[in-house]
Amino acid sequence: MANTSPQRTLPLLSPHSGGRSSLTCAFRCGMACAHEVSNPSENTYFGDVVADAISRRGALRAGALGALVVSTGVVGVGAALPAAADPDKETILKGSSGGGHGGSSSSGLKFTPVAPNKLDAITVPPGYDHSVVVRWGDPVVPGAPAFDFDNQTAAAQAKQFGYNCDYVTLFPMGKDRGLLWVNHEYTDEVLMFRGYVDGNAAPLEQIKIALAAHGGSVVEIARAGKSGKWALVTHGSRRYNRRLTAQTPMRFSGPAAGSALLKTAADPTGRFPKGMLNNCAGGTTPWGTVLTAEENFNQYFVGGNGVPEDQKANLVRYGISTTVAIPSGNRRFDRVEERFDLAKHPHEINRFGWIVEIDPFDPDSTPIKRTALGRMAHEAATTTLAKDGRLVAYMGDDSRFEYFFKFVSKDRYIPGFDRHNRDLLDEGTLYVAKLTGDSPAAEIDGTGKLPGDGEFDGAGEWIPLVSGKRSFVTGMTAEEVLVFTRTAADKVGATKMDRPEDMERNPVNGAVYLALTNNTNRTAAQLDEANPRPSNRHGHILEIVESRNDAGANRFAWSLPLVCGDPTDPSTYFAGFDKTKVSPISCPDNLAFDRDGNLWISTDGNALGNADGLFVMPVSGRERGYVRQFLTVPFGAETCGPMVTDDQRSVFVAVQHPGEITGATPDNPASTWPDGAQPRPSVAVAWHKQGKKIGS
Ligand code: FEO
Ligand code: CA
Ligand code: CA
User: Fold this and answer.
1) pLDDT at position 4, please?
2) 667 in Cβ contact with 194 (< 8 Å)
3) What percent of the chain stands above pLDDT 90?
């Protein structure tokens, strides 16, 4: 739908001092960096102080069980953890290696890294190739029309692949076929529509298109020939293909379902939310479902100034203005659906910010918002098993100075017993992390110089917040802890981190990794050993070894194997590896492991000035810390996903917001990727031309 309105009047100066464009700031995070940090607590910057169900559901169709073992990180049941009964951190990290299950000290990674660049293209190492699997607007549901940029409709978008793809995972159905799940995090209306002004002036149909472009997609894909290339299945039944949007009927489960805090005029039961928003990263369960994480849901609402006074503090803690009626850059979903006006429907916002479980194999299933996992700017939920078989989910809350969490189920996972397993995420204990360093505070001087003991490291504990209907937080009910989880974590003294993003568990040795993207707001007075740099533009990675290497433990050891940036910058650290050999890396975001235990890292907002990309780092053996860049995405995009298939012959990435550069519009595009026309967020796959393992 062409629109000849004058140029938009949004203030498009990026508040973000990293590498992100102002468009990204406006449309992805609602200008979060321009706002006050929403965690006002005085919590310490502590320096002051699997897969069986798949085997029947997917693998009846499948046989590639292992891919999900890797992507879920399920290592507790019948999987390969080091045999030591009570291994210490050193044993775990050094005893087995990236590079293979055999304990070799070499990672097996031999590719020639790609050079940093600003190209409007995906670049891969010599010997590799890549292609686009699915792009914004591609038909998903049978009967969907072909994409037509200048004649978009909401009805078409609801059947087509959504915008800004983020989390990607593959549910195999045999060696050469599978269901690809993809999140659609947010819309960038300035790039989607010609002449877009702002949400106040937008034609209602554009707002409806945006609602339909959020959510997620299930698409059936197939291997192309015998290579590592995969492509959309465009013929045949495509019986599993599905679009989920900001309007798909869902339900709540778990202890807060039916809570008064979740009741609205449209749903007086508090059990049936409508749609999901800002789905960022995710995870999978051992029984073959996807967990998708609602992140910056705060940006979709207006009317925060009109909520009852006693509810305002809760809004502020989740980054919603209570002083202005219509925040700058708001998409004005309320013009289509009144529920997005908090002055009229103050509880509607409590129905977002959850982990949503979706069964990709049942297109008629109702998505479930699992309240036991708490409410925050959820980045992801990575599942694994405790040694006793309880299900564990690791989760980050991606905002500056927020926390990271884990959920441990009450009951054990029973291989093959779906009817039992599918409710494991409804009963259990939600914990938040508190970290302490083991070096004197004076040695954390902000330069990045390692403390005297040679490592940024220390100990951590998981503090229980809530278990079923029992709250462990003074002054808060269990329902309040689950709906206002940030406030609960404030009260128990959790550690404020530099934007906790994706978490992943190493399938080889069980160590857990957390990407900390950046935090330019951290001051020198707020340093601690786990967040040791002020004005942290490039981020770092935290490594956790749970006590007894048991994901169900209450304590852990931690260290920082990677402090990102240009390796010539003395504040960087690459686990002691020779910095003259590594690739520069900035703003780690999504993480994934390959089957050999090498850590793949995608970046968002490269503050070194070049395109974002995908990197790989061995985390044990003699190449621990040897970061190499495997691919770059078009300048202006961030790299999401990533996902290495179980056979290690393919790596999928989501190319999110190509061409999202300040000043870019459809009439003045900053990118024409992937088709030489308007930029289209897409999932891509890369492979070795001779069928070798990715990275070899
Ligand atoms: Fe959507 Fe935290 O990145
Ligand atoms: Ca130390
Ligand atoms: Ca992310």
Assistant:
1) 30
2) yes
3) 83
In the prediction, which pLDDT does 74 show? Answer: 34
pLDDT mean over 663-671: 97
**Domain definitions of the chain by residue range:** 17-295+353-409+431-688
Note the CATH architecture for domain 17-295+353-409+431-688: 6 Propeller (2.120)
Does 185 contact ligand 1 (Cβ within 6 A)? yes
Task: Name residue 603's beta-bridge partners.
Answer: 588
Sign of CA dihedral 575, 580, 586, 591: negative
H-only helix segments in 474-523: 478-483, 485-491
Q: Is 280 in the pocket of ligand 1 (CB under 6 A)?
A: yes
pLDDT given at position 96 = 46
Any idea what DSSP says for residue 51?
-
Radius of gyration of the chain measured on its C-alpha atoms: 23
- Residues lining ion ligand 2 (Cβ < 5 A) are 438-439, 451, 453, 455, 457
CA 505, CA 392: separation in Å to the nearest integer? Answer: 11
For residue 642, the surrounding DSSP H or E stretch is strand 638-644
Q: How confident is the model at residue 86 (pLDDT cuts 50, 70, 90)?
A: low
Q: What pLDDT does 24 receive?
A: 77
Give 206's strand partners. Answer: none
213 lines ligand 1 (CB under 6 A): no
List the one residue out of 544, 597, 511, 503 whose CA is nearest residue 70: 597
Among 54-58, 265-269, 543-547, the range scoring the smallest mean pLDDT is 54-58
Give exposure, 293-317, as e/b (b: 16+ Cβ within 10 Å). Answer: bbbbbbbbbbbbbebeeebbebbbb
Instruction: Name the residue among 589, 694, 688 with its Cα closest to residue 638.
Output: 589
Burial of 225 (0-12, 13-18, 19+ CB in 10 A): exposed
Whole-number Å distance between alpha carbons of 177 and 36: 47
Helices (H), 270-398: 309-317
Mean of the per-residue pLDDT values for the chain?
90
Question: Alpha-carbon distance 38 to 497, whole Å?
Answer: 13
Burial of 434 (0-12, 13-18, 19+ CB in 10 A): buried
* Residue 166 alpha carbon, nearest atom of ligand 1: 1
**Which residue type does 669 have?**
P
Tell me, what DSSP letter sits at residue 354? Answer: -
Query: Tell me, what DSSP letter sits at residue 619?
Result: -
Nearest to 212 by CA among 155, 167, 144: 155
Answer yes or no: is the C-beta of 379 below 6 A from any ligand 1 atom.
yes
Q: How many CB atoms lie within 10 A of CB 429?
A: 21
- One-letter identity of residue 552: G
Global pTM?
0.92
CA dihedral of residues 315, 319, 321, 326 (deg, nearest 10): -110
Give residue 609's identity as a one-letter amino acid code: G
What's the start-to-end Cα distance of the chain, in Å?
A: 47
Mean pLDDT over 37-61 rounds to 53
Give the pLDDT score at 19: 67
